[in-house]
Amino acid sequence: MKEGLFKIAICSICLLISTSFCSAQQFKWVRGGGSTMDIISPTPNEATYFMCTDPNGNIYALSQVGNTSIVADTFTGWAHGADANLLITSYNCNGQMRWAKLISSSGGQCRPLGISVDSLGHLLVAGFFAHGGGSSHSLYIGSDTTISTGLYLATGLIQFDTLGHFNWIRFIGNNTVTTSLGVGYIGCVLAMDGINNAHYICSMGYGVVIMPGDTSHSGTYDLTYNTSGTLLSAIRLDLDSQWYLNGAIIDPATNKLYVCGLETMVFGATTDTSFVAAFDISRNRIWRYNAGHGAGDDVFTGITMDKSKYLHLIGGVNPVTTTAPAKFYFNGDSVVNSHYPHGDMTIVMVADTNGNPKWMRHYDCGLINGVKGITQLPNGKVAVTGGFVGTLTDGVTSIVTCCGTTSFPFLVILDSAGDL
User: In the prediction, which pLDDT does 5 show?
Assistant: First the structure.
């Protein structure tokens, strides 16, 4: 698979892929890019993993790219690392590129973990910046910033201003082998609170020194940084250590934390367990509800909150076997893939802050089907994006991929009642 895999896919919201879902939808603009290198397993595909917008309507995308002849709109670059590097691109609302930064490490692959903005004009980027496997290495942030990192420092948080100027970087740990083994890129998410603090919520093993005199136990920690990069607190969530997070959102008014994730001890088994949980300001657990589903892919992969304080969640479900349809259960509500009994389902669910489902929608597919992003639109609407192969349907309307077995993107827009 070559350069076509990396698509920034930053578009004005006037689009859809098929007249089967909606008519008169057109692109306002679209931007893309990628490298010319071959992407082979187990190297992650070139793709945009996270996006956000600032109060002025500027768009920021965090993508993973290869290491040869990287091109995105007006940006060109060559990475210092292996075959997985990070590219930050910023566009205005008219689709004009504002700036781009390539992040690469001489120690190996980099992985994207999150991107967000605060109300003061700061951009936060979370990532895994590979260590050198036995020697110190350099982290290259654009063409103007080089950071000589420690022997084992890898997982970190970077702050830029809105014009892309580097402000600071903060690594987790104390540059020992414990840091390398104890902090990876699985189960790390980024969220902002209502007073411009960045919350880097990470799964950690034993022995990582987080703050002076504070050594981690196995579990998930909420690391809170202020706008100057000072680590204000490191609080271990009241959550079993084998659970890791796919997404997190903080209520800006109450500072309560809402997360979704998956149990790792049975990863890939037919008993995979996904969950949604809420925590108070001290990160004591208020509630947790597990989801019943099939096997394989994660269920809940993203979470957000609307202005009415409802939680919006997305996920995907595989059938347990080839003789039983894919089913999904959550706190008294359930759906089933009745259109393609042995296929995948995309789940979109809205629940109140007590975890009670308000409505649940599913989009069925006989082959590959998964969701990648969710965002709030005006008037209580929500937009969901993903990819599928074959036919995607809600039972009333359908979209069909044009050819072959390549996964195609889709966009679904729902109103506040969950209707298409």
Answer: 38
CA distances from 114 to 154, 201, 345, 411 (A): 15, 11, 25, 21
Nearest-CA neighbor of 302 among 89, 47, 50? Answer: 50
Contact 43, 84 (CB under 8 A): yes
Single-letter amino acid, residue 380: G
The secondary structure of 207-258 as a DSSP string is: T-EEETTEEPPSEEEEEEE-TT--EEEEEE-SS-TTEEEEEEEE-TTT--EE
The label of the residue with tokens 């690594």 reads: 171
Is there a contact between 210 and 174 (Cβ–Cβ < 8 Å)? no
Q: Are 109 and 131 in contact (CB under 8 A)?
A: no
Quote the tokens at residue 162: 């809105």
> For residues 159-177, b (16+ Cβ closer than 10 Å) or e, as one string?
bbebebeeeebbbbbbbbe
- State phi, psi for 4 to the nearest 5 degrees: -70, -10
Whether residue 377 has pLDDT greater than 60: yes
Q: Is the peptide bond preceding residue 357 cis, with omega within 30 degrees of 0? A: no
How far is 6 from 9, CA to CA, in rounded Å? 9
Find, among 165, 180, 288, 299, the residue nearest to 238 by Cα: 288
Which amino acid is located at 270 in the chain? T
What kind and span of H or E run contains 317?
strand 311-317
180: phi then psi, degrees, rounded to nearest 5: -60, -40
Q: Is a pLDDT exceeding 60 seen at residue 193?
A: yes
Q: How far, in Å, are 348, 359, 362 from residue 414 at the CA level?
A: 10, 12, 12
> Which residues does residue 359 pair with via DSSP β-bridges, in sequence order?
350
d(CA 193, CA 283): 14
Over range 358-364, report the average pLDDT: 92
